[in-house]
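FORM 12-B: Structure-to-Sequence Request
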């Protein structure tokens, strides 16, 4: 949620975080920060119920030429870990996060910046809430942003990429930065480690299947009602 508040026009979401923090305090929930949730800690707590909401991690496309250690991901950009003041930028992935990264870069640029966004599907922003998508597409419809649908990344070689576009391969070159916004994968390591010792352990949110925040809230409420 903290990452979701960073792109332009989404700061209102921060109010939800403030609300949740206040509710945890009001309800006297024992929140333990700076604590790694590992097997030793959980066994020591001896819980009657175990809800695992360990979230998701970013994915990189399985194509030649990508160094996982050096790759620039959307989350790194939004966190401010990788500064991109401008240049000729390629964004791989045209989902909600890819769109938000494009808007973020346009707002943060300090000079020339052109963005090329490539998306495998035939639609940019698939799955976005309609009201949000319409306004986002209007803002992204500008000369500095080129959006290419039906375009699959095949390989990467420095600032040059090979893509397959509707059955035909072509080379796109001259990129100063390549940002990967290719979706998320569930983080289930803790669940896999504990599921036999705690047969009633429940996996919820992005740890079960990456989706919208409201879906995670629904799962959490249903789980709490069932446990209660």
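FORM 12-B RESPONSE
SEQUENCE OUT:
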């Amino acid at each position: 949620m903290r990452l979701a508040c960073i792109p332009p026009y989404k700061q209102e979401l921060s109010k939800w975080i403030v609300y949740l923090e206040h509710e945890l305090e009001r309800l006297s929930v024992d929140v333990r920060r700076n604590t790694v949730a590992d097997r030793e800690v959980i066994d020591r707590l001896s819980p009657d119920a175990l809800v695992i909401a360990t979230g998701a991690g970013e994915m990189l496309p399985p194509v030649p030429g990508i160094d996982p250690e050096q790759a620039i991901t959307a989350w790194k950009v939004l966190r401010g870990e990788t500064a991109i003041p401008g240049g000729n930028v390629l964004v791989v992935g045209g989902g909600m996060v890819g769109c938000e990264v494009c808007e973020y870069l346009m707002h943060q640029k300090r000079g020339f910046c052109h963005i090329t966004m490539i998306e495998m599907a035939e639609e940019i922003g698939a799955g976005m809430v309609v009201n949000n998508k319409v306004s986002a597409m209007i803002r992204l419809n500008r000369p500095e942003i080129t959006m290419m649908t039906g375009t699959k990344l095949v390989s990467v070689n420095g600032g040059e990429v090979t893509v397959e576009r509707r059955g035909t391969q072509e080379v796109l070159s001259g990129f100063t930065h390549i940002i990967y916004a290719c979706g998320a994968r569930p983080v289930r390591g803790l669940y896999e480690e504990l599921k036999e010792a705690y047969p009633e352990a429940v996996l919820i949110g992005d740890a079960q299947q990456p989706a919208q925040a409201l879906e995670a809230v629904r799962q959490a409420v249903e789980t709490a009602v069932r446990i209660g």
